[in-house]
Write a structure and sequence with these properties.
The protein has 199 residues and is an alpha/beta fold. Helices cover 50% and strands 15% of the residues. The chain is globular, with a radius of gyration of 16 Å.
């Protein structure tokens, strides 16, 4: 593989690291960790607040393609779903069926380019009913990724039981943690991230 490793982190506000005063979120922490461990990479943060899987599907290719040209070790990390599960006018912004179809299309397009994908589950927020919907989406996303042979990192349940994450989200805006919460999330993702990068 080329020594020019490039990773596009594509998703929502959690990818963007909203709430983190250090402006790293989990994506920035993973990239910094890789540099410290002797695996330098160019990281592109393509997280957009409030976006659903449908909005991400509509934009991701146009944003990734110029950043992942031929001849580089090109990778894509995905994470979304919290906004899909958000209720508006008595129904989710995106139905679970649409969310799964959007993910499947995204994985199919990445495979056509030969871009390896790593998917991170949508995290919990400080809203029990919302978390039930997100957890159901988490299950479906896991099955979709398994079918596509894409690694899927199950962090939703672990973060629900994590007092640091829960406390940070409650102290913040009810959805996003501060630095310590993102540290906890990064620690859950890190083993699978290292394994994926080493492939």
């Amino acid at each position: 593989m080329s020594g020019d490793l490039r990773v596009c982190f594509v998703g929502d506000s959690f990818v963007a690291g909203v709430g983190d005063p250090r402006c790293l979120g989990w994506a920035g922490r993973l990239a910094a960790m890789s540099h410290a461990e002797g695996m330098p990479l160019t990281a592109y943060n393509l997280g957009v607040r409030r976006q659903t899987s449908a909005e991400i599907l509509a934009r991701w290719h146009a944003e990734c393609a110029p950043r992942l040209p031929e001849g580089v070790d090109a990778r894509v990390v995905l994470s979304f779903g919290v906004n899909d599960a958000t209720q508006e006018n008595g129904r989710p912004r995106t139905t679970p069926e649409e969310s799964v179809a959007n993910l499947a299309k995204l994985l199919e397009r990445a495979a056509e380019h030969g871009w390896p994908v790593l998917m991170v589950a949508p995290p919990p927020i400080d809203d029990a009913e919302h978390n039930v919907r997100t957890a159901a989406l988490d299950e479906r996303f896991a099955r979709t990724c398994a079918t596509a042979q894409v690694p899927y990192i199950r962090i939703h349940q672990q973060l629900r039981a994590n007092p640091v994450w829960a406390g940070e989200v409650r102290a913040g805006d009810g959805a996003h943690p501060r630095a310590a919460g993102y540290e906890e999330m990064t620690a859950l993702i890190a083993p699978s991230w290292r394994e994926w990068l080493a492939r």
